[in-house]
Amino acid sequence: MFKKILIANRGEIACRVIKTARKMGIRTVAIYSDADRHALHVRMADEAVHIGPAPANQSYIVIDKVMEAVRATGAEAVHPGYGFLSENAKFAEALEAEGVAFIGPPVGAIEAMGDKITSKKIAQEADVSTVPGYMGLIADADEAVKISGEIGYPVMIKASAGGGGKGMRIAWDDDEAREGFQSSKNEAASSFGDDRIFIEKFVTQPRHIEIQVLCDTHGNGIYLGERECSIQRRNQKVVEEAPSPFLDEDTRKAMGEQAVALAQAVNYASAGTVEFIVDGERNFYFLEMNTRLQVEHPVTELITGVDLVEQMIRVAAGEKLALTQEDVKLTGWAVENRLYAEDPYRGFLPSIGRLTRYRPPMEQAAGPLQETGKWQGDAPAGDVAIRNDTGVFEGGEISMYYDPMIAKLCTWAPTRAEAIEAMRNALDAFEVEGIGHNLPFLAAVMDHPVFIAGAMTTAFIEEQYPDGFEGVTPDEATVQKLAAVAAHMKMLKEERAAQISGAMANHRRRVEPDWVAFIGREAIPVHIEHDGDGTRVRLMDGTEFEVRSDWRLGDSVFRGQVGGERMIVKTEFIRGGARLRYRGADMKVAVRTPRQAELQAMMPVKLPPDTSRLLLCPMPGLVVKLAVETGQEVQEGQALCTIEAMKMENILRAERKGVVARINAGEGDSLAVDDVIMEFE
User: Fold this and answer.
1) What value does the mean pLDDT take over residues 408-426?
2) Confidence category of residue 374, pLDDT binned at 50, 70, 90
3) Percent of the chain with pLDDT over 70
């Protein structure tokens, strides 16, 4: 077995590999750019080597710099993680020439299956059903438009070396095909150093389901079930689960056997994933094979008990698989939510900055365990596991240079319903401050009836949130419970204020029992009685809640029972009241005296400033392109400029017809949120 391995990656996946290597007694080497000098993976590794400036194309994807780090540290093997160089055949060749093991598949398999065009040709030759498309290289935007028309809109424009949603665009007409081709090409060159593009038919209403395979160098291959990855945004997965609520056992077996056969056809050895599009009749079509560890691998580990990183290391060291297909059992259900540094209230645009608060829910182990490579049996009924894979820490910074993913929060339970409920509670307890993030959106998805029914497709977000995410409006029962929580908090605060030292006997201030709770603009009269055991809150309609909790002033999370039901609510005192966040709802609350409530009703509502004549920067980023000039008339939907952030190009468009009066930013400028890019007459 290896004594030292280098992780050619950063962030969450680098930390994940370090954890398994440490468990196996293997020393680790981290690499880092200028932006990652104080990153968590650098702290965790036994050694760390600086490899260059912040941009990935000057550090993490520069093969020569990674190889220098390998030589300098004497690493015997390299784990590439995902993204960056993980599917780069030249990198694997460089390691092979140096006599260093690549913890991944052979060069031939990477070349055959890692390239999206080549993999589709191999699949077609093997009579595997594939989505119609053009597999050749595309010279320019004009040819992309011609090919798209021949295939028939809508089409998917994809980077050949792509992954993680980078370099992907859906085009519904010639204009979008032309524009999407250039953006995909630019993103592919920036993210992967390979700007080749191909086009395929975009299948509407599909489900995205993938099979995890594991093969060794001795001809053995198995599949470890499937992952449901249909909830995506911009072709980037957001929520995953295993197993899929849609597949039956026959389809699972057929997909698994086909995935293994495809892998073995190219002498695959390591962990890999074969992705399929599945229609409503459970017909499945090969999309691509990812010759690396997938981002969403934890849900497979949670239902099988197999440590995939450990298996990759053992296969790279020449060991035989300790598992056979008969050993693989799928136990319970696992759900993964990807926590992104993206603001859901601003169209999921990237958000960067310092994590002033980062408190994940407490991890707890349960479910299947895999210690020796053999199945250990079913998990005890009723257990729930929480796992949070992350590469950040409180006080750390989210950089504009890399992927916006902060963490992968996973839950496991014996049933799907229990796993979803565990995830709801875990999201409620997850504290993130300082940046925009998608926790409210994830909470909304976990409560969405389509998701609960398991009836989602890859169009879920577009269909269910066509106008974007505008937050969660809680139902009346939830509002009443939150009013009870607010009343409990208010009573503790008032009783604390009444405890004045040196007061005369029998002159302690009495806390009145009648108040009005404001949840947003809704006023709810409440009668509050508090004793040492809890607070009883009675509403005007006679509804009564008993609130029991160990929450104290200054605590940022309320954990307790409200009317006998468990609630976890993020709390924060703010000017004029408090902020409560629960199940995706984010509300300002205030508990006032009846007289204060009367006066509040007379207060005018402050209107937001008029920004209709301004183009504001929606995210911190770099101005890549200005598409208009001063004095130019623009039409609704016309591209105005392109902002790049976190390896993604974002085209800002005109909301209405107008004339550009002034341009305040130039190409190459770095902008903050709400900086004025241009003004209109």
Assistant:
1) 95
2) very low
3) 95
Measure the N-to-C terminal CA separation of the chain; round to a whole number of Å: 69
Which residues does the annotation mark as catalytic? 288
Helix, strand, coil percent values for the chain (each to nearest 5): 30, 35, 40
| Letter string b/e over residues 599-621, b meaning 16 or more CB atoms within 10 A of that residue's CB | eeeeeeeeeeeeeeeebebbbbb
Lowest mean pLDDT among 41-55, 123-137, 454-468, 591-605: 123-137
Cα 480 from Cα 468, distance rounded (Å)? 27
Q: Is the pLDDT of residue 379 over 50?
A: no
pLDDT at 193: 82
Over the stretch 15-33, which tens digit does the pLDDT of each residue have? Answer: 999 999 999 999 999 999 9
Averaged pLDDT score across all residues of the chain = 90
d(CA 627, CA 649): 14
**Is 502 exposed, middle or buried (CB count within 10 Å of its CB: 0-12, 13-18, 19+)?**
exposed
* Mean pLDDT within 119-140: 80
Residue 461's Cβ-side half-sphere holds a number of Cα atoms within 13 Å equal to 20
Token pair of 545 as six digits = 């809640």
Strand order in the sheet with 658-663: 614-616, 676-680, 658-663, 633-634
Residue type, 103: I
DSSP line for 169-202: EEESSHHHHHHHHHHHHHHHHHHHS---EEEEE-
Specify the amino acid at residue 134: Y
Across the range 455-482, mean pLDDT stands at: 92
Say which residue the tokens 């205030």 belong to: 590
State the pLDDT confidence band at 363, using cuts at 50, 70 and 90.
confident
Q: How far is residue 355's CA from residue 223's CA, in Å, rounded to a whole number?
A: 39
Question: From the CB of residue 652, how many other CB atoms can be counted at a distance below 10 Å?
Answer: 18
Q: Give 272's strand partners.
A: 213
Distance in angstroms (rounded) separating the CA atoms of residues 549 and 114: 53
Which three-class secondary structure state does DSSP give residue 134? strand
* 167 contacts 181 by C-beta, under 8 angstroms: no
Task: Band the pLDDT of 163: cuts 50, 70, 90.
Answer: low
| d(C-alpha 107, C-alpha 96), whole Å | 9
Q: Which two tokens stand for residue 415?
A: 């049933």
* pLDDT of res. 82: 95
Quote the tokens at residue 255: 């997909």
Residue 395 CB coordination number (10 Å): 12
DSSP letters spanning 63-88? HHHHHHHHHHHT-SEEE--SSTTTT-
pTM score of the predicted model: 0.83
Q: Which residue has the tokens 């981290």?
A: 30
Residue 366: predicted pLDDT: 60
pLDDT digits (tens, 9 = 90+) for 634-654: 999 999 999 987 767 889 999
Beta carbons of 280 and 286 less than 8 angstroms apart: no
Helix-helix angle 439-446:416-429, to 10 degrees = 150
Question: Do residues 623 and 665 touch, judged by C-beta distance below 8 A?
Answer: yes
| 459-482: average pLDDT | 92
Contact 391, 11 (CB under 8 A): yes
Contact in structure between 213 and 267 (CB atoms under 8 Å): no
Exposure pattern of 657-681 as b/e (b: 16+ CB <10 Å)? ebebeebebeeeeebebebebbebe
pLDDT given at position 601: 81
SS3 588: strand
